[in-house]
Amino acid sequence: MYDLEKIGKEAKKMASYVRRLASSEKNNILFACAESLEENIAQIIYANDKDMANADPSRGAFNDRLKLNEQRVKAMAEGMRKVARQDDPTGETLYMKSLPNGLKVGEKRVPIGVVGMIYEARPNVTTDSFSLCFKAGNACVLRGSREAINSNIVLVKILQDTLESLEHPREIVQLIEDTSRETAREFMRLNKYIDVLIPRGSAGLIQSAVENSTIPIIETGVGNCHIFVDDSADLSNAVPLIINAKTQRPSVCNSCEKLLIHINIAERFLPIICRSLSDAGVEIRGDETVCGTFEKIIPATEDDWYTEYLDLIIAIKIVDNLEAAIEHINEYSSGHTDAILTESYTNANDFVEQVDSAAVFVNASTRFTDGEEFGLGAEVGISTQKLHARGPMGLTALTTTKFFVLGSGQIRK
Amino acid sequence: MYDLEKIGKEAKKMASYVRRLASSEKNNILFACAESLEENIAQIIYANDKDMANADPSRGAFNDRLKLNEQRVKAMAEGMRKVARQDDPTGETLYMKSLPNGLKVGEKRVPIGVVGMIYEARPNVTTDSFSLCFKAGNACVLRGSREAINSNIVLVKILQDTLESLEHPREIVQLIEDTSRETAREFMRLNKYIDVLIPRGSAGLIQSAVENSTIPIIETGVGNCHIFVDDSADLSNAVPLIINAKTQRPSVCNSCEKLLIHINIAERFLPIICRSLSDAGVEIRGDETVCGTFEKIIPATEDDWYTEYLDLIIAIKIVDNLEAAIEHINEYSSGHTDAILTESYTNANDFVEQVDSAAVFVNASTRFTDGEEFGLGAEVGISTQKLHARGPMGLTALTTTKFFVLGSGQIRK
After folding, report:
1. Which of A260, A268, A269, A266 is nearest to A323 (CA)?
2. Is the minimum CB–CB distance between B390 and chain A shorter than 8 Å?
3. In whole angstroms, what is the distance from residue B122 CA to residue A229 CA?
4. Which pLDDT score is estimated for A372?
């Protein structure tokens, strides 16, 4: 039995330690860790080669994400330096006021404590997670995937060695080396020690955390983004925008998966957009009307409307009006990003107010939903839940608040 | 099988409806509901009498909380009017900025959607929950206890009749009338329809929600508040303050349950405080030193340090220094409210920084942790978790945020 209890206890102790580090100390540590990564590139690639040798050769895209080379390790180090250069989110007093009895009540931003991360293949998530959690003043416990275990062990050892060389405890970052599902599920139940669990990866992983975790979680990253083309849309803008949203990087969560077209413009717009999508190599699925007006379209099933393809596939539906578009989106969207193309002031407003998603767009590509693009700095992930953080999460998503009350002997009457 | 699926679907539909109501419409509804409660006092008390007749006569304090009379119903109506008079938390734009490419990115406060509440005896929680959820723009699904079921059915019917009389859908507030545990557990798994679940009641209820809920929850209300008397404390203030924190209302979560005393002042202070507590009718439990210095003290067990007594009981421990006090609190406290009494600037600062609780106090009674006292208006509860909301929760805890992006055809490069 893997000793998660011990890891949890250590992490809780480390939370008290990290909470007390000054920003300058945290930054020095992050810069030193970045340097250590670059000094140990050979060792990291050697371990990653073992993971690559064990990889299932049929999983091409997956293995590409697993693969490390000199350039990628340098990018990981650069990522840590970027986090070091960001403002420390903790310590800020959000407000402070005096009550009639002379008590001063304030609220300030403080670290969460212990952050648990559970994630899939990419080894860069290991260093990203550590740097973001640590910069926000937290200890962290990481559980990467079986496929990346050799890479992750070496990466965490390098971080821990660097911490130790600067006379800080190694346990500020801990890796769960047992990658079995049983241990993952047990990890999800360590709510006694871990304050928040962030699952990053497939919908299956996130669903498992929703089902099993007793630790509060932040759901991230599942996208099923819609673009609704209103009958008042500027159609000359619409084509390049939809092509951008669908094809610029189809494997990511903010790419467009569904297109809703107002019935009044369907006859005019459908042939143009289908031709353009088809020319861009996109497979089109569609409702009955769509199938009837353009060749080579596959009939969409009910499942299609829920599916995040993460691929060069799009499903198109004709809707009667704005209300039908909003209703469809609120039913089928994952609540990540949904856009309207319109020149109508009222329709733009109604769409923004009524679509219940983390990010709602008017006349822009869905691809912009991203922490860096929004100016939040390095991104922890994109939350599709409504509690704590919604949409792209910056460092503040890894903090909480605390009330402090300064008195001079006040008692309650 | 109770049809929770139907309730969930209706609630989700209602979330879209309530989201679109103007503040003035919401306020009119709340004022009308308050009036309906007062018009139907006889009917409410008649239903409550049935609950009282079914009540277990051995549970005195519990039954007192269950009991409704004219004055209490009027207080419930007044509570609704108070919520109606508070500012609407939704609609506020938290910030808005222009990106270099001309996109305007904003973040605004919006309703969560559907709030689930699961709670124990007090029938006033039914009207409080509805008014808070509704004012923040949410639909709600309520599940009260078996003991209050007759009262709750009548209360919700009055709210629904009032909604209907004003031509709004009854399903804006729904009550789960099946009070079985199985249905409660099934309710906790309705994450497809319910955005947040707030359990209010005993530690057992909250633990069950932590274990079973797939809906994100906000843990509320478990207290085990400490006061640490530093060796620099003004001891003349200390006695009335501790007596206030322990005895002013011992059954609530912000009353003091544990006293830590610096060893340097133990010999001097212990007899005074023990005498005062004992005179105030408080049962004292203590560590070895404490037991040795004052008669009639019961030895405290390890369990005592974790226990929220909610009664005229206190446990006292002698600690060697500030660090030991902080360590003890971070181990045993529920993270609700913990206080230091000190005249030392450094010790006050260190305590505030290092104690990991929702509210940390210097030289004031723990009894002040409360939404009204803190100036937040009517209180949803006191969160002892770190995600989303921490400490006393006002209406904003029942909201989330949404990014909105206004463009003119921008695509991502």
Report:
1. A260
2. yes
3. 50
4. 86
Query: A409 near B364, Cβ under 8 Å?
Result: yes
Strands B283-286 and B298-299: parallel
Q: Distance between CA atoms of B353 and B222, rounded to whole angstroms?
A: 22
Q: How does strand B93-98 pair with strand B104-111? A: antiparallel
Residue B83's SS3 state is helix
Strand duo A93-98 + A104-111: pairing: antiparallel
Cα distances from B32 to residues B27, B41, B141, B161, B181, in angstroms, run 8, 14, 20, 10, 34
* Segment B277-302, tens digit of pLDDT: 999 999 999 999 999 887 889 999 99
Alpha carbon of A388: minimum distance to chain B alpha carbons (Å): 4
What mean pLDDT is predicted for residues B104-132? 94
Distance between CA atoms of residues A101 and A338, nearest Å = 49
> Cβ of B219: how many Cβ atoms within 10 Å?
23
Cα atoms in the Cβ-side hemisphere of radius 13 Å centred on B398: 31
Residue A248's nearest CA partner among B354, B127, B413, B59 is: B413
Number of A/B CB contacts below 8 angstroms equals: 210
B195: nearest CA in chain A? Answer: A386
The whole-angstrom distance between A307's CA and the closest CA on chain B is 16
Q: Could you give the angle at the alpha carbon of A20 between the alpha carbons of A14 and A22, nearest 5°?
A: 125
The backbone region for B102, taken as left when phi is positive above 0, alpha when psi lies in -120 to 50, beta otherwise, is left
- Dump pLDDT digits (tens) for B320-331: 999 999 999 999
Number of alpha carbons in the 13 Å side-chain half-sphere of residue A349: 5
> CA triplet A352, A353, A357: central angle to 5 degrees?
70
Backbone angles phi, psi at B166, to 5 degrees: -95, 10
H/E stretch holding B340: strand B337-341
Taking phi over 0 as left and psi of -120 to 50 as alpha, with beta for the rest, B310 belongs to left
Can you state the angle between helices B41-54 and B149-165, rounded to 10 degrees? Answer: 160
Return the structure tokens found at B168. Answer: 């709004």
CA–CA distance, B155 with B151 (Å, rounded to integer)? 6
Q: Are residues A229 and A261 in contact, defined by beta-carbon separation less than 8 angstroms?
A: yes
Closest CA to B225 of B257, B252, B250, B201: B257
Q: What is the CA radius of gyration of chain B?
A: 24
- How many angstroms separate the CA atoms of B279 and B261, rounded? 19
Low-confidence ranges of chain A (pLDDT < 70): 1
Sign of CA dihedral A318, A321, A325, A331: negative
For residue A129, the distance in angstroms to the closest alpha carbon of chain B comes to 18
Amino acid present at B200: R
